[in-house]
User: What shape does this take?
Amino acid sequence: MSRQAALSTILELVKSHSMSRSMPQKIMGTLLGGLLPRCADRSLAVQQTALDTIYRLLTIQLSDQGLSLEQQEEAIGVLKTRHHETLNSDSQCLQVAGVVSKSVPHDQLDTLLLMAFDNLADQHQSCANMAAQVVETILTNHHQELQDKVSEMIDVLGVHFLFIPYQEVKRRVLRIITILTSHSSTAAVSHQLTCHIPGEEFKDVRRAACEDTDCAVSTLKHLVNSLQRKSCPISGNMYSTITSLVAIVGVYDIITQPEMEVVSTLFPLIFKGLLISLTSYVNFSLDPSEERFHS
Assistant: This one.
């Protein structure tokens, strides 16, 4: 099996580094991000090899941090236990993801996430699901350290989302985007407005905000506030309305959700934003290239 052969090779390389107690720190996130999804592989041998490799990698990392053997056992000992079991439940996978999330160097979080993103469309659904759990766990535990990466991560997730064949994994990715939006709604909304894609591609992403009321309210406020800004002139009296259109579609996608009862309290703000946006275009000529968005 090619997966087993590849992992066995990585394991042997890590073992050689374990002997010298050295490992290039800059590749730690890449290795962990590629290994974690394989912990849920349908092959028990692949699972065990992946867990063994992760355990050895983290042992090197914790040793470099000066932790004693007892402290290391307390931090990652569960991985040794899981090595002899099959990870066939969400709780077991979540436990492994949590252990790694607490032990990985902070400067390796972004590379670990990028590798996990690549596995969201893995041919094996269990591995794709594990990748999503890893991403969700890390973003939940380290959202403050990753604040400046929100726009980039939403962009990458939006691309991968289109190629995920499994509905369960898609639902997890939408929940991940909700987490990102709830922790940094300004960056998330700014990204939506600059994407200039008001069609079906991001409808699910916008509606994902409704899963969390606070997130939905914050998103709505940012979208409405963007409607009150003056549009960018293109030439003469011709103005671009694309950003406003994206914001209006975003507002519509959220307020039309049945669970959004809180919208009634925001009606004055939403009405004001839409009215200002409408009146600001009186006697303006629209950019002909944007006509497709007005149909």
About this structure: DSSP finds 14 helices and three strands in the chain. The radius of gyration is 23 Å. Residues 1-142 form one domain.
